[in-house]
Amino acid sequence: MRPSGRNLDEMRPISIETGVTKHAEGSCLIRCGDTHVLCTATIEERVPPFMRNSGQGWVTAEYGMLPRSTTSRMRREATQGKQGGRTVEIQRLIGRALRAGVDRVALGERQITVDCDVIQADGGTRCASITGGWVALRLAVNKLLKAGDIVSDPLLSNVAAVSCGIYAGQPVLDLDYPEDSEAGVDGNFIMLANGRLIETQMSAEGATYSRDQMNALLDLAEKGVAELVAAQNAAVI
Amino acid sequence: MRPSGRNLDEMRPISIETGVTKHAEGSCLIRCGDTHVLCTATIEERVPPFMRNSGQGWVTAEYGMLPRSTTSRMRREATQGKQGGRTVEIQRLIGRALRAGVDRVALGERQITVDCDVIQADGGTRCASITGGWVALRLAVNKLLKAGDIVSDPLLSNVAAVSCGIYAGQPVLDLDYPEDSEAGVDGNFIMLANGRLIETQMSAEGATYSRDQMNALLDLAEKGVAELVAAQNAAVI
Amino acid sequence: MRPSGRNLDEMRPISIETGVTKHAEGSCLIRCGDTHVLCTATIEERVPPFMRNSGQGWVTAEYGMLPRSTTSRMRREATQGKQGGRTVEIQRLIGRALRAGVDRVALGERQITVDCDVIQADGGTRCASITGGWVALRLAVNKLLKAGDIVSDPLLSNVAAVSCGIYAGQPVLDLDYPEDSEAGVDGNFIMLANGRLIETQMSAEGATYSRDQMNALLDLAEKGVAELVAAQNAAVI
Amino acid sequence: MRPSGRNLDEMRPISIETGVTKHAEGSCLIRCGDTHVLCTATIEERVPPFMRNSGQGWVTAEYGMLPRSTTSRMRREATQGKQGGRTVEIQRLIGRALRAGVDRVALGERQITVDCDVIQADGGTRCASITGGWVALRLAVNKLLKAGDIVSDPLLSNVAAVSCGIYAGQPVLDLDYPEDSEAGVDGNFIMLANGRLIETQMSAEGATYSRDQMNALLDLAEKGVAELVAAQNAAVI
Amino acid sequence: MRPSGRNLDEMRPISIETGVTKHAEGSCLIRCGDTHVLCTATIEERVPPFMRNSGQGWVTAEYGMLPRSTTSRMRREATQGKQGGRTVEIQRLIGRALRAGVDRVALGERQITVDCDVIQADGGTRCASITGGWVALRLAVNKLLKAGDIVSDPLLSNVAAVSCGIYAGQPVLDLDYPEDSEAGVDGNFIMLANGRLIETQMSAEGATYSRDQMNALLDLAEKGVAELVAAQNAAVI
Amino acid sequence: MRPSGRNLDEMRPISIETGVTKHAEGSCLIRCGDTHVLCTATIEERVPPFMRNSGQGWVTAEYGMLPRSTTSRMRREATQGKQGGRTVEIQRLIGRALRAGVDRVALGERQITVDCDVIQADGGTRCASITGGWVALRLAVNKLLKAGDIVSDPLLSNVAAVSCGIYAGQPVLDLDYPEDSEAGVDGNFIMLANGRLIETQMSAEGATYSRDQMNALLDLAEKGVAELVAAQNAAVI
């Protein structure tokens, strides 16, 4: 029933390649099917003004899409003079999600910026950014630990995200673009490795949903996040 | 236990005053406790480019805060040269929420813009904007119906929104600012009159939540939305 | 002869409601007929860079119109990426006008920002902003005096403003929108309580005027300002 | 008593050199003492959207200062990303002033843009821009008349402007920069050749003025404008 | 003598991988040593306004660097609200270079946009962008030819570019970042396959050069471009 | 053969008038035929952040065109909200060129900003800006030397620039606008007084060139620069 022929609760193939750029303190290229996102983590020994002298660190994120990551070419945001509303929404979400898994006191007064740049888009870019962004963050933090710059691990848990939606009347896991553009209801579910929720966003464009449907999507998401966490762990060993 | 002395499941006093500006096709001043939002609906006999010749109408929203609606003065967005990320996120949410209750074919090829300007802020401005915005929309649509410009009512249901959160370890309904700034987990719940969900956003800053907690907040939200719908109906008679 | 039926030298009804927002140090909602402006004054214990270490304070103003304060909806300046030329002109005028009534040494090295946001427009918004802005300023300064933060009153006099114009060949006082859009010549007159002038702006779009006509408008303006000063004083007792 | 040694009612030397750029339809370099402004008029066979199909023409103006036209270097507005408030105010004023002397029906549906660029500033740049701008406009219109593109002269009268102020307690004509920076009260007076007023702007920064003082400045302005009109006429013969 | 141990006239290893994104009409990832640039070509059946109805096509380019393509993180241009001067210079250069190898009449009235996004930077990103950009262009044009949308090949020749400079007193080929940041003189040389020049830019920061030195660099550049052309041809077979 | 009737190796008449504005530390109006550029040099006793505490000075440049310096009016960059790509390219080039002739240690930790504003354009504005900019710089530095603010002359040599191109198949010196708009190949050549090269930019739009042609243009450029240097020296005596 799904355009890709997948089962309702079947994720796309996940691949996470680490160490893809030589400059970043942590990096990976995450591929969730045909969605490919390059994630890099940059450590800076300073924090934003609102965190100065707080004894705590900060984790933030930025998100972008290459102009031809999409079916038809998008205008480059740098030439438009600003980031669009969707971009701003997404990068704020990634930052919040990653911070939920961080002990910012243990991190110490430094900032880690996670850049998520979509090389190729086929649905679910924000979820792939969070999942891949956590891997880049993990690798950057490992570097700090190895160098002795921090003593106790500030990462409390993996953070991963997956989208689910009602497609053709059925709850399905890990929407790709053809599904995403048709689904009346879809949600993004961000969780820790133990399944506790960090953020849930379920929205309907021209439709509504019941609490039962919401719970069905949450069940799928828990399954998906477990698989993503396993892929993260395999990548960062 | 709550700073305001309210019960865990008690809303702030709701007041909706309609017809507050003489120019707008629909308008109201909604007060949810000390949060006051002026909502106006403007009808234009044109649609955005992506909707032209579709036979369907469009409903969109814009959101703003007056500089001194907050405890300390905020910089005016017009002088900063752009709307901030939070503003963009909120106005996109309001627009999506209102559209979920609209039959856009019945509306016909015209646009209704709902402006939500926060006069005074004390938490929950986005939810008040949605609830008040729907009242402005209802009044504007009534004008179209009365004038015979449209024949069947394009509004399928009330749309209302409330925030809930975990405050001091307890699920509470309708967070005010002192609660919102302390709550580790909070969510915005947007529903139709019959309780079906349009959008759910639950996020944790520096915390996580379980599915049980999520369900407890949903229970509170259903109660709150029912009261808001009643207030809307009383206002637009 | 006037669309409103008023006498040539008759002001619109004036109402000034104070204390309309709980956060601002001073606030009022001024209504000059159907022109409604929300004015707030914010005290900050810092001055702009060019006034630092001068021992003097600063008073400045910002002006905005809600998108649907006008007959047809205006584009929100925050979405246009800048304040328009008219807005900039008006807020500079309000700031200059208010400063003319202030002893900035007595104010001490702090800044008061007066925000004037037009809720509903029917002509004369800049004059209403000055008149209402002074009330907000007066209330904020009263708070400083009461708290003992300043010792001698820095407000030397009331400041109020009214527009006059040549409408249908006759000098008329306090133009409303239907008059303003027809008048070939119109002026804004800003005065102290004793009638001394702070700023005069008389301009003609597609017309000119004689010195006699200018003096006739000044006579009307003196009458109008006296009434506005009385209304200010009644409001701030 | 004046820093320049001029009499109270004495203008600075005026020089108007025409035809200073080969591309513009009309141009002049106006020198009012050490204030030098290059004025060009550009004819375009189109009007702004709001004038289309009105059968009328439009005259507009733009103003700029070269970065080192002033004592210390100003930041270039093009690098700041916008025109400052003062610039916008001035160019709107120039445009309004010039339009007051134009029969826009006789001009026909075309636009004339007058650019006023300050090469060297020593006070009174906006007045010099208006006076010189009219000369550029006159020359451009002459070209249209000569070519037979328009039949009757759309320029109803000269338009010229001068500043006056209260300096060291005395009304003085044609303020230069040392006077302007000290004067508590100053005004810009724009008139037709016959002395009828187009626009009056008198403002006080940290001071006020009486109607008698206002009339004294108007007397001086009439004298000054008469001299400027004579210089304009001599230049455009 | 060179930091990398290369001979004076030795290029870095070149690799060109094609078909790296599924959406673009042509794409490649070019690696010149540690400089990696993703190049995509997008065909659109429209031309910019200045080319409409000319019967000719247009080729243009855009350039960007991912924030962490560099040793320390660069600010994302989209968040800065504009492309920097260096970016604008480079993308104009890429566009001019590629157009020099195109018969725009044969291309027909369509536009090809070549996006060059630097994934990892180690000197020579603009030259790699031109060399890789031509490959993406070649592949996109091949698609048009294969589909019969154009009949004769509009690509007249390969276009490739290399940088050379005076490093430690010696002319060297294909500067990497450690060399580029030390070289007093460096140039970018863009050529056709037959060695004819399209663009030469040689500049000195804090130094100058003789015509003999210029000719020595041109000799090296000819050698380098020949190798790049061979690599292009191998990639697009 | 040339539209102007000049010989192939003949420059346009050069005139350099110094001391044209009273505020700038150095200034000139350079006329290369009908290309007229006003150049001013401003000394500031501070350097940009990246040069602080380096013991070295900085020389930078800004470039602008008056809106009607061109055949048809250009939009003012200040109203467009940014400098165009061409402007940015040119001003970076002017700055680099001038710095090549400066001993920045001898200059001391101060900045000289050279503003080049095109009053009238007829081709070659960037070269005229460099040649005239150096004169303004020379005069400003003379002032520093005379005042004893610096001891040894930081200007190592004249810096001058000329454009050459292939017009109608022939190499020609000092392109004017009619030639520049037709030439398939053109270059800008910046040199010291002794002919050593600072920067060479040769580009072809829709054409290519051989090394022999490049050398022919360099021969012409050497002749032209020698004449420009003589004119500079005559102007600054």
What does this structure look like?
Six copies of one chain form a homohexamer. With 237 residues, chain A is of the alpha+beta class. Chain A has a single domain (14-236), classed as 2-Layer Sandwich (Ribosomal Protein S5, domain 2). Chain A contains six helices and nine strands, in the order E-E-E-E-H-H-H-E-H-E-E-H-E-E-H. The first copy, chain A, has helices spanning 77-80, 85-99, 104-107, 125-146, 177-180, 211-236, and strands at 14-18, 26-32, 35-44, 58-65, 111-120, 159-167, 170-173, 185-192, 197-204. In chain A, the strands form two sheets. A five-stranded mixed β-sheet of chain A has the order 1-2-3-5-4. In chain A, strands 7-6-8-9 form a four-stranded antiparallel β-sheet. In chain A, strand 1 (14-18) and strand 2 form a beta hairpin. In chain A, helix 2 (85-99) packs across helix 4 (125-146) and helix 4 runs parallel beside helix 6. Chain A is globular. The mean pLDDT of chain A is 95. Chains in contact: A-B, A-E, B-C, C-D, D-F, E-F. Chain D binds chain F through residues 21-24, 27, 34, 38, 40, 42, 44, 62, 64, 66-73, 76-83, 87, 113, 115, 117, 119-121, and chain F through 21-24, 27, 34, 38, 40, 42, 44, 62, 64, 66-73, 76-83, 87, 113, 115, 117, 119-121. Strand 9 (197-204) of chain E pairs antiparallel with strand 9 of chain F.
